[in-house]
Amino acid sequence: MFEARLVQGNLLKKVLDAIKELLNEASWDCADSGIQLQAMDNSHVSLVSVNLRAEGFDKYRCDRNLIMGMDLTSMSKILKCAANDDIITMKAQDNADTVTFIFESPSQEKVSDYEMKLMNLDQDHLGIPETDYACVIKLPSGEFARICRDLSNFGESIVIACTKEGVKFSAAGDIGTGNIKLAQTANVDKEEDAVIIEMQEPVTLTFACRYLNMFTKATPLSPQVSLSMSPDVPLVVEYSIGDIGLIQYFLAPKIDDNDS
């Protein structure tokens, strides 16, 4: 038997909004320790990893490991039926071919349940290597979303350059160039408003705007985002999911043709 109950049900809705543009379908791996999802996006350019810890749920039970293959578009449609303050429970039998979503209003006066068919998906579990990154930039997630949106007007790629002076985002295209520089903030009242840079060595990498803009769909989940970069390895864009887990997006840098 698998059962996971989340009083803050809207977190689950936000997680789906954060991944459904990148993934059509994916397997949720349910185990004793929590729920994980790892999948390459539809065009096999980026990797999405979601981790929800068992202790983050208000009630969590998973008697044996269970892999639930889901059509994320369908799951998103079902979650849209839940109000933002609904309590959401996911339930499935051990070898079930369906999963049930139960939505309860806080007053318990309305309870709805929806059953969804599960899919058999062949998905390889992708090992994500532990990497020490040359620089890790933490900044307000709304600020990052805005930078990606603004710069995508200029070109298809965003160059992220991290030095001890700060971090610079730039884009160039037919209409001209755009540069946005953020210095490390010295003193802010709220930690989530801060720009914090931990750097071993300066790094400059180029990434596709289209993907960065899709990653920023996770902005409502967390006030802060962290970007981890090293030469020649994928960028990691990480958002925490309330206090129950985190979502990470991995995106390989664009290689400049002139260097080869």
TrEMBL record:
A single BP term in Gene Ontology: leading strand elongation
Main location per the UniProt record: nucleus
Swiss-Prot/TrEMBL keywords: DNA replication, DNA-binding, Nucleus
Intracellular or extracellular location(s): Nucleus
Database matches in InterPro entries: DNA_clamp_sf (IPR046938), Pr_cel_nuc_antig (IPR000730), Pr_cel_nuc_antig_C (IPR022649), Pr_cel_nuc_antig_CS (IPR022659), Pr_cel_nuc_antig_N (IPR022648)
A GO molecular-function annotation: DNA polymerase processivity factor activity
Superkingdom: Eukaryota
Residue stretches making up the Proliferating cell nuclear antigen PCNA C-terminal domain: 127-254
Domain Proliferating cell nuclear antigen PCNA N-terminal: start-end pairs: 1-124
KW Nucleotide-binding (keyword) present: no
GO cellular component labels: PCNA complex
Function: This protein is an auxiliary protein of DNA polymerase delta and is involved in the control of eukaryotic DNA replication by increasing the polymerase's processivity during elongation of the leading strand.
HAMAP family: DNApol_clamp_arch
Family to which this protein belongs: Belongs to the PCNA family.
Subunit structure, as described in the record: Homotrimer. Forms a complex with activator 1 heteropentamer in the presence of ATP.
Protein name, entry field: DNA sliding clamp PCNA
Species the sequence originates in: Procambarus clarkii
Upper lineage: Eukaryota, Metazoa, Ecdysozoa, Arthropoda, Crustacea
Gene this chain is encoded by: PCNA
